[in-house]
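Backbones bend. Our protein:
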Amino acid sequence: MLNKRSLAVTAVAALALAGCSTAPEDDRPRVLAAIYPVQFLAQQVAGDRALVDSLTPSGAEPHDLEIAPAQVRRIGTADVLVFVSGFQPAVDEAIAASGGSAQVVDATSVLGLELDHDDDHDEDHDDDESHPGLDHHDGHDHDGDPHFWLDPTLLAALAQPLAEALSAVDPGGAATFAANAERIASELAELDAEYTARLSTCERREIVVGHEAYGYLAERYGLTQVGLSGIDPESEPSPARLREIRAAIAEHEVTTIFTETLVNPKAAEVLAKDLGLATALLDPVEAQVDPEADYRDVMRANLEALSTALGCA
């Protein structure tokens, strides 16, 4: 015969088992984004009606992402996939091989980007001395540059296609997705207006950066970028490239060399110290480094850094 204590334990155990057996599985659509900027946008459009996750771990450098078998399975079971084809080859291959039935939003296709990489681009770029100064890096050459999200208007252009993809897997949420897409697009338009106003009257318009991730930003706001290295953040600037940069810095009276969150700043810091220049952080927003700061926060911090370095009124 069970005593009162035994009965109580049995009752608690029975309730726990009942809870485990009846706990409903979250049946919301699953959205899988390749990198943080499109993950941010998907979260804004989906709201609470979908589960949004990223293939690239928080704070990780996304360029050379490798896909583990578990991530391949996640790709195959996702309802919506959001990625930038041509940026992360392993992601492209995994999506092509997944055999899933997901709605696919490819920013490269939607926005008409050109991300065909030239394997010799960085090497030729570093050794080219035929175009001294900054004219060789006029901010309009997007050869292999995937960083379209540094132009807020281009990121905003993905909101409606995302809403349509989500509506296809969750028709009941179509009105919510459409409203969310309109809201975030409006917020990104306000961010664009802030950039336009702050960067319209600056003493300088040249930015010296660790690698050439800022072509879309430069083109949108009338700036000129010069990178210590090309699109590949791991490539080292050649002696010829460093001579070109030094000449450009002197010609345009550059005061600041920008470093990044996920790239070794040593080359930039050494050059800045040698020339008596300041350094400042300019984040390409490839990953969310600070969980308390989203895309909008980082972009506004970038705007402050640019305004200070360029002497904007």
About this structure: The CA atoms of residues 211 and 227 lie 5 Å apart. Strands lie at 30-33, 51-54, 80-83, 103-106, 206-211, 224-229, 256-259, 278-281.
